[in-house]
Amino acid sequence: MKDMKEDEAPLLESIEGEWSEKRLPSGRRVAKSQWTRGNMLSALFCLFGVMCLSLSIVVVVFGPASPAGMNQKLKDTSFYSPVLDELEIPLVETKSFGAFFDDVENPSLFRQIPSPEVDAAWDDLEWIGRYYITDEEVTKLGKDPSITVKSPRYPGKNIAIITVFHELHCLNSLRKAIYPEYYFGQPRTDEIYWSHIYHCIDTIRQSLMCSANVDVTTYNWVETQEAPYADLSKNQVCRDFEAIKRWQNKTMETLNDVPVHRQGGEVELPRPGKLKQIHEAQQKEDV
User: Which parts of the chain span the membrane according to its record (predicted)?
Assistant: First the structure.
């Protein structure tokens, strides 16, 4: 580096020198100013601190919500879920359609008998994405990360799913059980299948009882009907399901797109007692 010329002195040194070397008209030297380099650095640091504080206030007031404050209403009535720290879920006012008979002019696709169009709608509704969570998040769920299935693609991540889509899968499974000839060619009799169906019934029961919807249903008088007729359509406040679905579809791969295999050293849990009974019965049949 070439030597710095006198007129190329650093800005702070130039300013300090200007204040220090000024003389009075009489020729007497002015006492060295108290505005030293240290004073100026202190002032600049103070100014920087004020700017940072102002920026922080702007972020807090106008910026996106921090994880601690995100979805606070939902967190107050939910067990821990990392989703509530990742996705802002709006609450939306809607009106449900719960009429006993379908709307003749605008029928719901989800009330129709099986068809390719109906199946496509249900398949889209119950699409399940693969969600990756950390060991810390597994622990916050009240589970043990030493026994959860790890991702083969993302070290340190555990494979999970979002519960609402599993529940919709269960509801769709119950729908299909009503039409065994259409979906399976004949009624199903295998025990694994019916264990799945009963699992789905009980899963939906528990979910309904957990949410314990206390919205109120009223009754009307309807022509030709002797008894009061329940008006099962109602105004309600819901979590924005479409926002959740869009987020899942945008950020996750299909649950079964990437095969998962044991990588070695996994802890295996004992198989459920009912599954053991089914296996033993099958082995006896095969003998």
Answer: 41-63
CA dist 148 and 139 (Å) reads 10
What's at 285, amino acid-wise?
E
Q: Taking all residues of the chain, what is their mean pLDDT, rounded to a whole number?
A: 83
Helix residue ranges per DSSP H, 185-233: 191-211
Which of these, 128, 98, 120, 95, lies nearest to 254 by C-alpha position? 128
pLDDT digit string, tens, across residues 166-210: 999 999 999 999 999 999 999 999 999 999 999 999 999 999 999
Closest CA to 133 of 174, 83, 177, 87: 83
**Euclidean distance between CA atoms 110 and 96, whole angstroms:** 14
What is the crossing angle of helices 273-286 and 191-211, to 10°? 170
**For the whole model, what pTM was predicted?**
0.75
The Cα–Cα gap between 171 and 204 comes to 8
C-alpha–C-alpha distance, residues 122 and 246, integer Å:
16
d(CA 252, CA 254) in angstroms, rounded, equals 7
Quote the CA–CA distance of 104 and 62 in Å, as a whole number: 48
| SS3 at position 275 | helix
Q: Characterize the bridge pairing of strands 235-239 and 91-95.
A: antiparallel
Say how many Å lie between the first and final Cα of the chain, rounded. 90
Q: Is 125 exposed, middle or buried (0-12, 13-18, 19+ CB in 10 A)?
A: middle
User: Helix 116-125 to helix 163-177 angle, to the nearest 10 degrees?
Assistant: 150
Query: pLDDT tens, 88-121?
Result: 999 999 999 999 999 888 899 999 999 999 999 9
Radius of gyration of the chain (CA): 34
List of residues 6+ apart from 230 with CB closer than 8 A: 100, 217, 218, 219
pLDDT band at 255; cut points 50, 70, 90: very high
